[in-house]
Each structure stands twice: as structure tokens, then as C-alpha cells.
Design brief:
Porin; Outer membrane beta-barrel protein; OMP/PagP_B-barrel; signal; OMPW; mainly beta
């Protein structure tokens, strides 16, 4: 699964780069402020007791998105940010922090790209890599990588031929085993909803 996802990302990014010089006007870059709202679903710790005891903090982060339009309706979007630090809680009490980097690659359909108001839908894949786990004073950690689906819906409000305002919502599948001293004690389904607002520039 990991090799297949990486291959899809590499081929898609390569196609975008290869066509950039011929059709620069097909590039769209956005900057967004994105609020992350995790679903916070988790298996019982140790396999017994109540579920959903582990949660991850909500957070607002910066995001940069690069899109390439293959046609006026069909585009690919690469969603990027820098590694984000999150607090982790057990029964509402902090047990430490971790960092994650969650790029996504989306295929999009834009319904009315020639209009002032242009809605779109997207579906793609997410790869989240976890690092700098500092849970339970170093005894706990999260699985290193998570691969899952991502879906989005959004709308662009054109201001002129180059600039636009954007509202976007994504649902991303992010899941990880929770390890203590090398033993799996739970599985957390972060599965966040990401609500973004930003501006775009079409070259």
C-alpha cells in the first residue's frame, strides 16, 4: 500500500512538472488558514474498558495548496504544510505531544470554472508521517506512517482574472497504533475534518 501511494504521488507530480512550462496559466496557488477538528475515536486501552479515551487537540494551521488544471474542469491539487505539533490526551489529561506532516494529493472536478462562483469536489490520498513522539515521558509513541483516503468540497469566489477567495472543507483518514514500550495498547482514529479559508492566485 505504501509503495503504491508513493508511486501515484510521484507520477502525478512528475506530470504536473512536465507540463508547467507549456501551460503556466493552468497553475493555481492558494494559501489557507485551516482548522483541524479530529474525530477522536480510539479502541479501548489495553483492549478492555471504555473506548475513545485518547484524543488529539484541535488546532488551526497554515496551509499551501498547489493546483494544476489538466482541463478547465479537471485539476490535481497537492496540499502542503510544515510539521505540526499536537497535544495528546488520555481521559482529558495531557500525556504528551507528537508532530505530524500530512500532505494530500487530490483529483478535483470544478463545476463552473468560467463563473464568478466556482464549486468543486475532490477525492484523493493522504500520507501522514509522525515524528518526535513524546508520550508518557518517552515510553509511548505513535505508528510512524498513516495512509488513507481524503475527500473535499469547496468553492472559489473570483475577484478578478488572477485572484480569488476560497472556502474548503476536507475529511481525511488518519489512523495510528498507540504503542507503549513497543507493545500496541490502542488504535486511534484521528480522522479530522479540516475547514479552510484563504486566497488563491491563478497564473
Amino acid at each position: 500500500m505504501k509503495k503504491a501511494v508513493m508511486a501515484v504521488m510521484a507520477v502525478t507530480v512528475g506530470m504536473l512538472a512536465g507540463q508547467a512550462s507549456a501551460q503556466e496559466s493552468n497553475w493555481l496557488v492558494r494559501a489557507r488558514a485551516v482548522h483541524i477538528d479530529p474525530a477522536d475515536k480510539a479502541d479501548p486501552v489495553g483492549g478492555v474498558g471504555a473506548s475513545d479515551r485518547i484524543s488529539v487537540e484541535n488546532k488551526t494551521i497554515p496551509e499551501v495548496d498547489i493546483s494544476y488544471f489538466f482541463t478547465k474542469n479537471i485539476a490535481a491539487e497537492l496540499v502542503l504544510t510544515y510539521p505540526q505539533k499536537h497535544e495528546v490526551y488520555l481521559d482529558g489529561k495531557s500525556i504528551g505531544t507528537f508532530k505530524h506532516l500530512p500532505p494530500s494529493l487530490m483529483a478535483q472536478y470544478h463545476f463552473t470554472p468560467e463563473k464568478t462562483i466556482s464549486p468543486y469536489l475532490g477525492l484523493g490520498i493522504n500520507w501522514t508521517t509522525f515524528s518526535k513522539n513524546k508520550l508518557l515521558n518517552g515510553q509511548g509513541s505513535l505508528e510512524h506512517d498513516s495512509f488513507g483516503l481524503a475527500a473535499q468540497a469547496g468553492v472559489d469566489f473570483k475577484l478578478d482574472k488572477n485572484w480569488s477567495l476560497n472556502v474548503d472543507v476536507k475529511k481525511v483518514q488518519i489512523r495510528s497504533d498507540v504503542m507503549i514500550a513497543g507493545t500496541k495498547v490502542s488504535k486511534v482514529k484521528v480522522d479530522p475534518v479540516l475547514l479552510g479559508v484563504g486566497v488563491g492566485y491563478r497564473f
